[in-house]
Amino acid sequence: MKKLISIVIPAYNEADNIFVIAESIKRVFSTLNYNYEIILVDDGSADHTLEKISEYAATSDNIFFLEFSKNFGHQLAVKAGMDHAFGDCVISMDCDMQHPPELIPDMLKKWEEGFEVVYTIRADDKNLSKGKRSSSSLFYKMLNWLSDIELEPGAADFRLLDQKVVNVFRNFHENEPFLRGLVKWLGFKQIAIRYNPASRFSGKSKYTFKKMVNLALHGVTSFSIKPLYSAVYLGFILSLASVLYIPYVVYAFVNNVEVSGWASVIMTIVFFGGLQLIILGIIGIYVGKMFMQTKNRPNYIIRSTNIPVR
Ligand code: UDP
Ligand code: MG
After folding, report:
1. Region 110-134 average pLDDT
2. Which of 31, 66, 67, 224 is the Cys-Cys partner for 147 at CB 3.0 to 4.6 Å?
3. CB of 101 within 8 A of CB of 31?
4. Is the CB of 154 inside a 6 Å radius of any atom of ligand 1?
5. What is the average per-residue pLDDT within 174-201?
């Protein structure tokens, strides 16, 4: 019996990419001795993505789709695909050809060698805009500094997971999973391979600056409570400073040395007011997460699918 490989592809307004990616995966597998299935997850697209997928699915029996009831985001789209994948291993990749399907044979080779997680690291892409590159490198620096997991810069959501690992993931019900971090956190036998990203085949990136900032904030706060400690440390440092400063103020008062300084008082108030708000905000983010998670709502909602009940 040939092994079955599931390919999970999230798609958000990718109508012009569906055919291209599916065909190139088909080409790659024509040289391999595996069965494969493609699970395309339509993440609430507003264009003809779903029609293109259904059209393509009608031509072969190994193309499946999940249609979300609205846009739930990239991470949940991948999670949904994995939840419904049936393969001996699952490969997740983007829809826009930036993750080269030609890498699949190498990933499968590593998997056959016994690795349970094969993740990929994107080589620095000279084609990407400077802004995107530096924001991406800042993202990883911040994440590693503030959280307890180490992610390599350029770690991509292009990875192979053994069925064992996918089964573990099925029991995760975080309402905003950060897969890159979670996979690292899980353990198992992991290995990285490098690849040169291609440029987007059609359409433009769905990751706006706002979405990237959110992903970064979210990546940090879902993996560590280090930011909460910052309040404690800052508090200690500032209390110590004020303890040293208070005797001076008392001395100046007693000796009637003129204590001028309207400006410095206002600056201090404004500065510490800001600091307190930031720290309050950090605490707020964690409380907010607890609130959202305690509601226990479904993480994503599927409107339709052609995946048979199995
Ligand atoms: N994507 C998604 N939901 C979203 C945003 C993106 O399913 O809300 C998909 C998108 O269709 C693509 C992948 O996630 O397959 C990566 O998105 P994109 O290429 O826009 O990100 P970038 O490569 O620029 O980081
Ligand atoms: Mg892309």
Report:
1. 83
2. 224
3. no
4. no
5. 86
- Burial per residue of 155-189, b for 16 or more beta-carbon CB atoms within 10 angstroms, e otherwise: bbbbbbbbbebbeebeeeebbbbbbbbbbbeeeee
Q: What is the pLDDT at residue 258?
A: 67
C-alpha 29 – ligand 2 centre gap (Å)? 22
3-state class (DSSP) for residue 194 = strand
Q: How far is CA 109 from CA 33, 36, 117, 143, 191, in A?
A: 12, 15, 12, 31, 12
**Is the model's pLDDT at 10 over the cut of 90?**
yes
ipTM of the complex: 0.95
Measuring from atom 24 of ligand 1, which residue has the nearest CA? 205
> How many C-beta atoms lie closer than 10 Å to residue 120's C-beta?
23
Q: Half-sphere exposure of 72 toward its Cβ, with a 13 Å CA cutoff? A: 25
CA-to-CA separations, 69 to 45, 63, 64, in angstroms, rounded: 10, 20, 17
Question: Would you say 11 and 53 are in contact if contact means Cβ atoms under 8 Å apart?
Answer: yes
Cβ count near 116 (within 10 Å): 20
Give yes or no for a contact between 234 and 275, defined as CB atoms under 8 angstroms apart. yes
Q: Which ligand is nearest to the CA of 74?
A: 1
Distance CA 243, CA 203 (A): 59
- State the Cα–Cα distance between residues 16 and 2, nearest whole angstrom: 31
Atom of ligand 1 minimally distant from the CA of 12: 11
Nearest partner of 199 among 149, 138, 259, 128, judged by Cα: 128
3-state helix, strand, coil in the chain (%, to 5): 50, 15, 35
Ligand 1: atom nearest CA of 13 is 11
Q: H or E element: which one contains 89?
A: strand 89-92
- In 3D space, the residue among 284, 279, 286 whose CA is nearest the CA of residue 223 turns out to be 286
